[in-house]
Amino acid sequence: MNNLNEGKMILQEISEKKRKLVEVATEKGLHSSETILCSQELDELINAFYRCIRTGYELQNSR
């Protein structure tokens, strides 16, 4: 899969996880273990997106 398609997929996952985070935080509170776990999962997705961008940038500039 190319980086553009992978990046688009990750952005969709980030959007869904953000909605879930708001929902969980509203229902369970900001300090609940479920909210914290959801936040950590969102962080991982954001990091994956930036890795994808960096890899694509490096590939593009190596040509």
TrEMBL record:
Any one GO MF annotation of this record: protein dimerization activity
InterPro entries per record: HLH_DNA-bd_sf (IPR036638), Spo0E-like (IPR018540), Spo0E-like_phosphatase (IPR053028), Spo0E-like_sf (IPR037208)
Annotated Pfam families: SpoOE-like (PF09388)
GO biological process: regulation of sporulation
Annotated protein name in UniProt: Aspartyl-phosphate phosphatase Spo0E family protein
Organism encoding this protein: Robertmurraya kyonggiensis
